[in-house]
Amino acid sequence: MTYPRTNPAVAAGAVERHLRARRDVGRGLLMPYVTGGITPGWTDYLRAFAAAGADAIEVGLPFSDPTLDGVTIQQASDAALARGASTRRILADLSELSGLPDLGVPLVVSTYYNLVLHDGPEAFCAALRRAGVGGLIVPDLPVHEADELTGVAEGAGIELVLLASPATPQPRLAEISARSRGFVYAVSLMGTTGERAALAASAAELTGRIRRVTDRPVLLGFGISTPDQARGARRHADGVVVGAAVMRRVLDGAGPDDLRAFLAPLRQALDQECDRPR
Amino acid sequence: MTYPRTNPAVAAGAVERHLRARRDVGRGLLMPYVTGGITPGWTDYLRAFAAAGADAIEVGLPFSDPTLDGVTIQQASDAALARGASTRRILADLSELSGLPDLGVPLVVSTYYNLVLHDGPEAFCAALRRAGVGGLIVPDLPVHEADELTGVAEGAGIELVLLASPATPQPRLAEISARSRGFVYAVSLMGTTGERAALAASAAELTGRIRRVTDRPVLLGFGISTPDQARGARRHADGVVVGAAVMRRVLDGAGPDDLRAFLAPLRQALDQECDRPR
Amino acid sequence: MREVPLRREPVPPDGVMGGPPARGRFGEYGGRYAPESLVEACREVGEAFREAWADPGFRGALARLLAVHAGRPTPLTPALRLSEELGVRLYLKREDLTHTGSHKINNVLGQALLATRMGRRRLIAETGAGQHGVATATAAALLGLEATVFMGERDIERQALNVFRMRMLGAEVVPVITGSRTLKDATSEAMRHWVGATGDSHYCIGSVVGPDPYPWMVRELQRVIGDEARAQCAAELRTGVPDHVVACVGGGSNAAGTFAGFADTPARLVGVEAEGGAGAARGRLGVLHGCRSLFLQDGDGQITQAHSIAAGLDYPGVGPEHAHLRDLGRARYVTVTDDEAVRAAVRLARTEGIVPALESAHALAWVIRAAGDGELPAGSTVLMTLSGRGDKDVSTLKELL
Amino acid sequence: MREVPLRREPVPPDGVMGGPPARGRFGEYGGRYAPESLVEACREVGEAFREAWADPGFRGALARLLAVHAGRPTPLTPALRLSEELGVRLYLKREDLTHTGSHKINNVLGQALLATRMGRRRLIAETGAGQHGVATATAAALLGLEATVFMGERDIERQALNVFRMRMLGAEVVPVITGSRTLKDATSEAMRHWVGATGDSHYCIGSVVGPDPYPWMVRELQRVIGDEARAQCAAELRTGVPDHVVACVGGGSNAAGTFAGFADTPARLVGVEAEGGAGAARGRLGVLHGCRSLFLQDGDGQITQAHSIAAGLDYPGVGPEHAHLRDLGRARYVTVTDDEAVRAAVRLARTEGIVPALESAHALAWVIRAAGDGELPAGSTVLMTLSGRGDKDVSTLKELL
Ligand SMILES: Cc1ncc(COP(=O)(O)O)c(C=O)c1O
Ligand SMILES: Cc1ncc(COP(=O)(O)O)c(C=O)c1O
């Protein structure tokens, strides 16, 4: 099977180049998530992620009203805000790491659109850039509302990742895939973030539909927490995002080493299943 | 001043003859009231009243809903009912006294019309007669509803006393006075039974208006409790009914002797003021 | 739903539920058994109301108040889902949608307007659960009158929110501490108070009880329910008139107002009483609160306390005209238990999205029972007056369910 | 009352508060900022509503439900005694007289009927004080749908009776234990739940907020308030149109529905917000619950919790169309304190016999203030929407007064 080509006029950004390169050598991609500012030394989690073999790292900027998140990430957001976390402080913490060069993996920030609008898209993207962030996920900014941000992000060198959902009709999926940068975030199921017992059937179907319209890397997210699920996901997608499973452990007191231990079997599972996804 | 004559065709009953006789010798009439069955030996109060110089005695048959009585007589009714008082038992107690011959004063029963209807007017009046009762007062049976009872009472030898109120228009007052038996019960004020600080101005006005249409004895009731008030009443009427003032004392534990002592100055006041009422 | 052939019975003689009854009598019931001190006041009310009722100006003013303030006309709601379940065609006359939430407002606005016309500056009222008290306080505020509401101490405790509501509306609420400290005693106390206040105050009785002219006057003021429903049925039903007309009966005002619209039709009239307050179904002849009617009494002729989960049905008597309709056979009176009423309330909530007053739920409970045991043949049309909304009963229900 | 010369200003350009806005935008506000998983569901709702709204069959069915079940039209009540005191002519649009006691039912019946048309079997709703929840439970029962209502745990404690009422109507009430455990969080939770239930469930939002088509759809469903009032004013007022049209603003649905009837007239439109929940008057541009509008936020862009004695005004944002009307200058938005609202509620109770919802009391408080300080010239005519009745607030008031 060959992938439809993405418009070659648009050169891939750093995040996408990084992910494509790894995918193209047959590696299953792993993007763990952490809520920024969740603990005093929270950036140590990023180092642990990198050490565990992450291919990208998602950092959530906590928002008061995380309407697409399940309880775990809601609690993490509340906890981080209660500690005084804010966009400004979290980006300041990231600046000290200076992103990719230091960790060796790209940083992708995720947050709700209100925080983007609060500073204004320009200022917000510029701040991300200064902090060494390469990508941005905004779950409540669907493609048809994204115009205001896409150009600005592009200009600032921030890759705006768009989400695709099992409910997205095919023509719209093509548009999302075409306009997404970095990768396409495939929401595995009709639901919020949070651990689930098994990989939803909708995951395969959605990934297949995305494949038909793009060769951009596709990461499956929402509900993936076990090596088995990762293996399953890898059969269809280029990799996985692991969020709630990480944050539940963090909320339960896990330190960076615990998380490294938690991610190791996931990494392994992704590596074992080395057939290229169909 | 001469009294208009009552229709001579209707011969006065025993109660009325008794009261007329006493009035005509210039005596101020005193009718104390007691709630039947209020205490185990309640008929002792009747003897005390007689001994204190009562000219007639009013015995209340307690009713669950005494809508024309103030708190004192309401409480007395409740207390008597709680003790198990009923028309039947109270009349049985009275039978033992056999009324006038024994006490030397006529007995007048007062109660609400529901109790009359309950037994039926015939049975009720017959029972009164058997118990030696001479008169009957039914505060919620106004003259225009009295037809059903007047003939029956008359037939049973019970004098049905009608009430007149300050609000009663003159033509109606004439009808009440004509149809009342025993005496005319002049309600001294627009209100319920119960002690008052002073004799209401309406008392004189009403008595005057009754006088213009009848020479039947007129007793003022409602709110009369002190010798001063009795003296005042005597200036207009032929005498007084004293109810709540008695019953408050009974409720407070007064015995027959206490009541005799209470009635003595009232008796005296009525005797002192011996000018015939104008 | 199946259609059944129309069975129609002869219409009763004219004049039933008509103009002012002679000497205030409905057959052997009614009358003016008031203390002499109130007889003149009652006469004045009667005369004033007769005049007012014949005066298009008064009628117009009242109609406007009912429309712009109380929200009349109230709808006739076909209870579609419940009808389907029951196999009858049930229509609800929605008095629950009036301002203050029950039919009581119809009567009170009329009497308040009359009081103004008579130059009175204050309304006196009795209340049990507080519906009539709130309605009276409301009408008084609207017309700039004072209001004094008598309420049994036990009811004051049980209905604290309605007490507050009355006070918020500017009314004085007087606790009644005598007798059973409930509605019966509040009524007695209101009458006692009126004796001393006839000059400037109008006694605004809350149902078709009390001395003449109240039973007639209150029925006339409530007949707007029946008149509206009659016209609405004419527009809505193939037969024009429903087969059965049902209403709950406390004192009997919502039933009287409803029946008045159908007295001259072949509709069967059914009054539903609370098992523990069944004056019409189980009362004995008596006199209370100024009128001759049927009352619950003990063997000694003492009035007994009614007991119903519906505070508005917690009255030991029934209006004299109902006693008369019963004797005539023009209406019949049935009873329903607390439990049946509660279940009917829940059923209406679940099927029609209406939480009825527990009083009104009694009427519905009978409809449900009668549809079940064939007393209401399948396909019959039933008009039921939903006398009030259940908001006031929610805490009672909450404890039960 | 003195008559004042009519001052009329030019009518604003056509199209304000008209048909469906392009791309769901009201100026720069609105839009469909929904998670991708809900975008298709929103599109379906929008398309279905557009079709339904153009279908006389749907319109007729809704109009009948509103009439026979909800009690429409609601009256326009001249507040005569209060007008006299204030020196203005105040008319009240009586949404308090609708079934369930507030304007919320207008919207909910429309959405429930739409859900049926779309083949949905369940309604999802958020609620704060419980008014929208009760209305949703009611509409669901009426149409045979299921209902799941999300309610913050703190509100569940504060509004136990409304919770019971919803359950009695057959709805499932789900406690929300996240965030501030109030309306904002209940809304978030309802949206989260919808993501997993779009197949069989319709999310019935309670105000003119949320992703397109909700702000427009809910305004259209509420415009019955304004349309009726417009016709009633035409019949009642010499000038045909009132000088001022006033309504309280939580999310803004009763105000939007009211304003919609007068947007093309010279009437001045005033939205009254709670001092502690003044999204329109003091909010900053943001995105929440699917739409771009004005929200109360802290310096970091976090949404702050609103605080109002009126639970229905306890929302940190405002519907996008209000933000737009504000920018246009077509409406203005003012604020009122808890204290002013409580005093206004008591005053309306005392002068007109109406205990208003505390939300509605905000609108009145502004009228009282503005009549006092000359902002409303003597003799001006004011139409105010009385969005709901105060029964739900009586226990709150009881603690205060
Ligand atoms: C809602 C409701 N229905 C019925 C009644 C019973 O009264 P009536 O029989 O006079 O209609 C009451 C009395 O309070 C009531 O509040
Ligand atoms: C009576 C009442 N008025 C007003 C509101 C505020 O909502 P909106 O601004 O959407 O009309 C509410 C909300 O619950 C309400 O219950």
Ions and ligands: pyridoxal-5'-phosphate
Do you know the CATH topology of chain A?
TIM Barrel
Placed side by side, the strands forming the largest sheet of chain A appear as 1-2-3-4-5-6-7-8
How would you characterize the largest beta sheet of chain C?
6 strands, mixed
Which CATH top level class of chain A fits? Answer: Alpha Beta
Structural class of chain A: alpha/beta
Number of domains of chain C: 2
The residue ranges of chain A in which pLDDT falls below 50 over 5 or more consecutive positions are 1-9
Subunit structure (chains A, B): Tetramer of two alpha and two beta chains.
Family (chains A, B): Belongs to the TrpA family.
Keywords (chains A, B): Amino-acid biosynthesis, Aromatic amino acid biosynthesis, Lyase, Tryptophan biosynthesis
Function (chains A, B): The alpha subunit is responsible for the aldol cleavage of indoleglycerol phosphate to indole and glyceraldehyde 3-phosphate.
How is this fold's topology laid out?
The complex is a heterotetramer, with 2 copies of chain A (about 280 residues) and 2 copies of chain C (about 400 residues).
Chain A: H1 14-24, E1 29-35, H2 43-51, E2 57-60, H3 71-82, H4 87-97, H5 99-103, E3 107-110, H6 113-119, H7 121-130, E4 135-137, H8 147-156, E5 159-164, H9 170-179, E6 184-187, H10 201-211, E7 218-221, H11 227-234, E8 239-242, H12 244-251, H13 256-272
Parallel strand pairs in A: 1-2, 1-8, 2-3, 3-4, 4-5, 5-6, 6-7, 7-8
Helix pairs in contact in A: 2-13, 3-12, 6-7, 7-8, 11-13
Chain C: E1 25-26, E2 29-30, H1 36-53, H2 56-69, E3 76-78, H3 80-86, E4 89-94, H4 104-117, E5 122-127, H5 131-143, E6 146-152, H6 153-158, H7 160-168, E7 172-176, H8 183-195, E8 201-203, H9 214-236, E9 244-248, H10 253-260, E10 268-274, H11 279-282, E11 284-288, E12 291-295, H12 320-328, E13 331-336, H13 338-352, H14 358-372, E14 381-386, H15 394-400
Parallel strand pairs in C: 4-14, 5-6, 5-8, 6-7, 9-10, 9-14, 10-13
Antiparallel strand pairs in C: 1-2, 3-4, 11-12
Helix pairs in contact in C: 2-4, 4-5, 4-9, 5-7, 9-10, 13-14
The structure holds pyridoxal-5'-phosphate (2 copies).
